[in-house]
């Protein structure tokens, strides 16, 4: 006669609590099988003086003062809370299949290679070679001085082009004394510009005007040139070519861009090294075919 058959006997396997615990254990084991054996969360959390110093510095940068003892204790408690949740989340695999987490981890990996690149100090020879490869980027802009006479197409209509050409002929023949303030139409545009870079001219009269200005002869009235505002007769009074960049003059800019290029190259090389560890297979399927 078994225990549960004897009078007053107790069948443990009929206990509902036992059933619940067994089902829970089975679900947990199934989860571990399906999701892989996650690494157990380390059971020791050590808050070092370096951690506390970093917490103090972060507080000081935000509030422009040092934390008092109670605030510091709150910072430490919050750090511990964050560490506990972080470790448990990693142990449960919550970091997997999370786009935000994946992107953040990628950024941190890329930052590692960028930090290595920025730590390397370039030599003068390296910077000089970089400068020659990017000569146009560091060359100073050309400068142009000119005066202009404006014709308002909105007011003059179809006659604007003809009247501008007639005044140009008179100016070139010396029959009319040029005075940008009295000839042409009233405008808020400047009567001329002095030592203006292409960017300066473009910001006032547009990119198309810059190209026309570059073709104008020196010391002679030319045009009419078109802008977004109307027509212009122009006389270039001086034109200075851009200066050849010298490393000593532009070294900070060259070094900055050199560092950026090195960071990009190292990042790509590091990625290719990591990629070599994997076999990549892209399965498009028939549905993906055009």
Can you put this structure into words, describing what you see?
- The chain has helices spanning 16-35, 49-63, 69-91, 99-119, 124-133, 135-138, 153-156, 159-172, 198-205, 207-214, 247-275, and strands at residues 143-151, 192-196, 221-226, 231-240.
- It is an alpha+beta fold and 290 residues long.
- The protein has a domain at 141-240: Chitinase A, domain 3 (Roll), CATH 3.10.50.40.
- The longest helix has 29 residues, at 247-275.
Mean pLDDT: 78
Q: How does the overall form come out from the CA principal axes?
A: elongated
Strand content: 5-15%
CATH 2nd-level architecture of the domain at 141-240: Roll
Stated plainly, the CATH topology of the domain at 141-240 is called Chitinase A, domain 3
Major sheet description: 4 strands, antiparallel
Largest sheet, spatial ordering of strands: 2-1-4-3
**Helix residue percentage:** 40-55%
CATH class of the domain at 141-240: Alpha Beta
| Order of H and E elements | HHHHHHEHHEHHEEH
- Report the structural category: alpha+beta
What is the terminal separation in angstroms? 75 Å
**Backbone CA Rg:** 38 Å
List how many beta strands DSSP finds. 4
Model regions low in confidence, pLDDT < 50 over at least 5 residues: 1-10, 33-39
The count of helical stretches stands at 11
């Amino acid at each position: 006669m078994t225990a549960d058959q004897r009078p007053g006997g107790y069948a443990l396997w009929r206990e509902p609590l036992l059933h619940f615990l067994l089902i829970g254990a089975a679900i947990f084991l199934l989860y571990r099988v399906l999701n892989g054996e996650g690494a157990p969360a380390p059971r020791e959390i050590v808050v070092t003086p370096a951690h506390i110093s970093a917490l103090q510095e972060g507080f000081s940068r935000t509030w422009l003062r040092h934390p008092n003892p109670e605030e510091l204790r709150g910072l430490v408690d919050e750090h511990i809370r964050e560490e506990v949740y972080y470790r448990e989340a990693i142990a449960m695999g919550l970091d997997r299949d999370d786009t935000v987490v994946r992107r953040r981890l990628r950024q941190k990996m890329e930052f590692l290679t960028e930090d290595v690149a920025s730590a390397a100090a370039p030599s003068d020879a390296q910077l000089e070679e970089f400068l020659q490869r990017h000569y146009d980027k560091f060359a100073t802009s050309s400068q142009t001085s000119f005066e202009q006479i404006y014709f308002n197409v909105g007011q003059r209509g179809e006659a604007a082009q003809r009247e501008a050409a007639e005044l140009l002929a008179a100016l070139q023949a010396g029959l009319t004394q040029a005075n940008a303030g009295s000839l042409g139409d009233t405008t808020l545009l400047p009567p001329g510009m002095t030592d203006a870079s292409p960017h300066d001219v473009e910001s006032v009269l547009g990119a198309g005007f810059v190209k026309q200005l570059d073709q104008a002869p020196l010391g002679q009235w030319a045009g009419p040139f078109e802008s977004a505002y109307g027509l212009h007769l122009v006389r270039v009074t001086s034109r200075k070519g851009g200066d050849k960049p010298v490393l000593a003059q532009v070294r900070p800019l060259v070094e900055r861009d050199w560092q950026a290029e090195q960071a990009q190259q190292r990042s790509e090389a590091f990625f290719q090294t990591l990629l070599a560890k994997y076999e990549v297979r892209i399965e498009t399927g028939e549905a993906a075919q055009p």
